[in-house]
Design goal:
By secondary structure, this protein is mainly β. Helices cover 4% and strands 63% of the residues. The protein has a single domain, classed as Thrombin, subunit H (Beta Barrel). A 6-stranded antiparallel beta barrel has the order 1-2-3-6-5-4.
Length: 112
């Protein structure tokens, strides 16, 4: 693993449900863990909207991080990544190689 290439500072955010004084439930995102990673753009895809009139590009990015106990708890359903002012949904989590010393997160840019 090339530690020098880890120049991207990413933040993992966790989905949580907060309850207010009136017992209303609200979904919020809170910062969970921040670490250094490598980022690599992979080939994106295109998707059409519901009406079939507009083509929406789907940008995908692979982030590779050193394996640690905090990252082993990350799941693709309840976490997302914040990087450079953009939000990315985690599509897939892949442990790299047989050494199991890093994790690769395949992410998709959230359309706003």
């Amino acid at each position: 693993m090339n530690i020098e290439a880890m120049r991207c500072r990413i933040t993992f955010q966790r989905a949580q449900v907060q309850v207010d004084e009136f017992k209303n439930h609200k979904n919020t995102w809170t910062d969970y863990f921040t670490c250094w990673a490598t980022g690599a753009h992979t080939s994106g895809s295109e998707q059409t909207d519901e009406a079939g009139q507009q083509v929406i590009p789907q940008a995908t990015v692979d982030f590779t991080c050193r394996c640690c106990s905090e990252l082993k708890a990350v799941t693709k359903d309840s976490f997302r990544i914040w990087f450079g002012g953009d939000l990315y949904n985690i599509v897939d989590i892949n442990p790299n190689a047989w050494k199991n010393n890093s994790l690769k997160f395949r992410c998709q840019l959230v359309q706003r």
